[in-house]
Each structure stands twice: as structure tokens, then as C-alpha cells.
Amino acid sequence: MKKVKCVLFASMIILIFLIGCNNKGKKVTHVGKVNLSSSIKIDSTVIDVSYTSGRGNFYMIDSLITFADAYSFTLYSYNNNTGKLISKHFRKGHGPNELNSFMYVYPDSKSHKIFILDSSYFLSSCDSSFNLVKKGVIDFGWKNNMHHSSDFNTPRNYKIMEMSDFDMNLTYINDSILMIPVNVIHRKTSQNGFVNSKEYDEGHIFGLLNLNSMKVKKVLGKYPYIYKTNPVPHMDFFQYSMKEDTIYVNHAIDSLIYVYKYPDKLLYTFGYECNNINRNYTVTKKVDHGKLLKNDTKKCGMNIGLKYISQTNLLLRTYMLNLNNGESGLQIYKDNNLIGDFKMPRYFKLLGYCDKYYYGVRLIPIETRDITKFVFYKFKIQ
């Protein structure tokens, strides 16, 4: 067992400030304080999963950690404590309860219904009994207008958020409406290869998908002011978590956490800079995602996860200091106050909470020529 102690770093003091900014540049209250009073103890379980491809994403529901294998299109579910394989569902095929492809598999944070998305934006879902319902292709309205447009209120100018390998919540707003994270399509809105000057004032980050028609009916949500003053279009992904009608939003490049009343009324900000993170991103309006993203992730860190845990009333933010070697960290907030900032195992992804423990996983498996291993983590916060 490894005990990680919370250490107050001196540089934190100069990073405390009282005022943040919203999209219009107006002042908004920044709340909370630094009180690094918690500690954590981490246990790990290593399991041989050589029967999987090791390529896919993880999620957690109740006491099961599930790996969605993007090669075999199978969901492998494991006991969160022992790592024992409990069940597996689906396989590659075109039958009524088979899958012929998927990119990501994620549960709705409220209902625990599972959504399965492929590269063509075809969305399927299943319930706890793993009965597969093939819903159809998410329709942003692209066929209606493929020309350049600077109208940031039309869904036609958006797509599913990229960089969702880290985390991508899908949330029921009601029985027929699903909220999904989106990105602007720069090839449709950019001007001569540069970000449209109106994007960070008028652009949106969420879409409302009607599950009956499969049409994205509306886009909403706002970019934080930091993207207007320091544009980094190649790192415009984010994570969010909801507490009833309160939305917490965590952008990759920003030390702040933004608190909205649904749909997008900014209430206040909180949050403090992650320990030892380098945020010297390439500030540019040039649309060159691949090259710039590759260069910045070699030297800079980023926020990669955000989860509100209703059972403990804590908000946990994960970050990565270096994408190449996987150096990772975890911040813990209680009542908007930072109560812990810890170094975590490499490539750490937080999954959830069950029976007094928090659970996570190593995002990238440990692989040799002969074996593939997953690493599960659990810890308490004291």
C-alpha cells in the first residue's frame, strides 16, 4: 500500500485570485480557498487481459469496471476489487445483438444506460440487461448546408467533441433529449485557415440530441474567456459533470472550473492551478490541429477529467503533466475549496466511487510481446 501525502506547494499562493471572467469579459465571482488537509492511500490490482486488444475505453457502473474493446467490439466487465472477469457482452457482427464497429462506449451519468458511438456517428444504446437498441446516425444537419458559415447557433457547424479518449459524458436532460459535448467544425467556420473572430464569443460546447428524431436540435453552452484572450483551438476539448441542474465544466487549458445553472447561466468559478503543470501552450488562431497538438502535448500538461461524486459531495479533477510519460495528478474539491492535490500513478484515469472507495485505471495497458495487463486502482480520501 502506498500512502500519498498532500504537500502545500509555495507557488500556489501566488495563483490564488478572487475574480474570474466570463465570455463577455465581465467580472464573475471566484469562490473557494486552498486548504490542503486531506490524504489518500492507493492500492492497485494488475490483471492479465491478453484475450483483449488493449485498445478501447473504460467506464464504471456500480461495482463493475468495464473495458469496451474497440477491436472485438466486446464489453468486458470486471469486479472493481479483485479484477475478476464477471461477464462479457456483444461481439463483432451484423446481427440484432452484435456490433460491427464503435469508437467509444459511455454510460449516461444519471440513468446508467450505456451509449455506443461509432466513427459514422451511429448511436446505439443498451440497458442493464444488455439488450441492444440501434438508434441511428446523429444528424447535425450537415447535408442541408456544406458551405462556409459564421452562424454559431446552428448545429450544422458542429461535430462530436474530439479528444474524448480521456472522458466524454452523455447526459439525459429528459426522456427524449440527450446532452452531448461538441466542437466547432473549423473547416466550415474558419476564415482563410484561421479561427473565426466570433467563435469564442458566440460558439457553443454542448448539443441537445433528440433521441426520437436523432437530430441535434440546439447548441448551447459557452467558451471561457481564456480562449478569447489566449486562443488554443487545437486544445478546445473539455470535461463536465452535473449535480442536478448545476453543470461543472473543466476546459483542458484552464485552471478554473466553471459553474453554470443549466443550460448556460454562469454562476461563479472556483479552482486553483494544478501542481507543477506547464501551460505554455502555442497561442494562435491558426487551424492546424494535428501538428500543434502534437507539439504542445510533448511539453505541456492538460486537464483530462472531472467527476462530481454525489455520495461524498466531492468534485475530483484529474490532469496529466506529460502525455508522453503519463505523469498524472488529482485535485480534490469540497464546497469549492481545494483540499488535496496529489501525484497519481502514470496514465491515471478516474472512473468512479463505490462503497467508500474511489476507483481508477491506467489509461494505457502494460504490454509486452506475450502479455497485456490492465491496472485498476482504488483509494480512500481521508
Count every beta strand, where a strand is a DSSP E run of 2 or more residues: 29
Main structural class: mainly beta
Most strands sheet: 6 strands, antiparallel
Rg is 20 Å
Strand content: 35-45%
Query: Which term fits the overall shape?
Result: globular
Mean pLDDT reading:
90
Q: How far apart lie the N and C ends? A: 15 Å
Give start-end ranges of low-pLDDT stretches. 5-24
In which range does the helix fraction lie? under 10%
**How many DSSP helices?**
5
What does this structure look like?
7% of the residues lie in helices and 43% in strands. With 382 residues, the protein is mainly beta. Strands 1, 4, 26, 27, 28 and 29 form a six-stranded antiparallel β-sheet that branches. Strands 13, 14, 15, 16 and 17 form a five-stranded antiparallel β-sheet that branches. The chain starts with a strand and ends with a strand. Mean pLDDT is 90; it is low at 5-24.
Sequence-ordered SSE layout with sheet pairings:
Layout: E1 2-4, H1 11-15, E2 19-21, E3 27-29, E4 40-48, E5 56-61, E6 64-69, E7 74-79, E8 85-89, E9 104-107, E10 114-117, E11 122-126, E12 132-137, E13 158-160, E14 171-172, E15 177-184, H2 186-189, H3 199-202, E16 206-210, E17 215-220, H4 226-229, E18 238-243, E19 246-251, E20 257-261, E21 265-270, H5 289-299, E22 302-309, E23 314-322, E24 327-334, E25 337-344, E26 348-354, E27 357-362, E28 366-367, E29 372-381
